[in-house]
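Co-fold these.
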Amino acid sequence: MTDDEDERLAAWLDGALSPEEAEAFAAALDADPALAAKAEAWRANDQALAGAFFAAERPIDDALIARLGLASVPVAANDNPRRSRLGWLAAGSALAASLVAALVFTVRTPAPGDDLSAALERTASLASVQLADGRTLTPLLTVRAADGRWCREFRSGGETALACRKDAGRWTIEAHGQAATGPDAGSIAMAGGADPAPLDAAYRRLGASDPVSAEQERALIGKGWN
Amino acid sequence: MQPRIIALLPRLRRFCEGLAGTPYDGDDLMQATVERALTRAHQFDEGTRLDSWMYRIAQNLHIDRARSQKRRGTSVDLEAAEALTGDDGRQITEARSDLAAAQAVLQALPEDQRATFLLVVVEGLSYREAAEAMEVPIGTVMSRIARARQRIAEELAMIRKPARQETAQ
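Predicted complex below.
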């Protein structure tokens, strides 16, 4: 296979071809089973690797923000970054063959990152859905960013986050906040909870609209956010 | 600028962890990146993207560090790092295991290909955005991302074989 063809394949996976080029490449895929298999393998590898990053995401908490010199508020005394940092060092360095095998054997299952996208793509606000990794995800509201992207705030695993939709149904996390305590899913206005600052900043940065109505949201989900 | 930096911390942290290879080194790199961004805030051109600027700072710092580490020969080898892990190493969550495995594959890539893969595939940047963040032409992004994927496929193919034999025993 030529480098050129590899580059076209990569650009096709990334949605970076012009409509004409994409059409021509789709025809080439149909005609060439080996190329199609390679495309499928590359896509699966992408999902597995990117998914591994998203599934292992660590929350950005107040202590971290203070440590980075981004907050004027002093760190709480009970913060213990040293210990957790060493814990993560252990996790990150343990490159035993069994762990590599874990990636190899999970390559074909839907990556958690995409699981998140799928959940945000299809779930109405205030409805809950269980992700493959066992966490529950509850979208809270939908807004539109100034650049036209749709964004949703959601709660999962004890924190709230804001994700925006890129093309092809892929949602990427823009900001994390800490969830309000208590399971009161009805209090949308309080969704930022104990630490609304990161989400507020993200909303400002994105130039977000007011949340859309439940009816508008249903329509968006129905027609795939286009 | 601080609230805007806070807003992009999740992305910056992932990128730094991917560059540096471990959560510990990644957070260290993120910290250095944020520090440099804050001290050089006056150099940031408001007409450009803050995330691209910070990705670029992170990458430059990472390359500097990798170079000086090589010179000093102080990089921790894997065996030593594993010996450090002790009991904590057994309590890793499944998600961290998957990430460690993913990192093992990504570490096989040259620095420039790894950075490109992280920006385009993990962070979802367009080729143009990635080109801006790395200060290279779009054509370079295109060839790097294709080579990165080819290399990843080869690495995974190599890993898969022994892994299968192991489970068969």
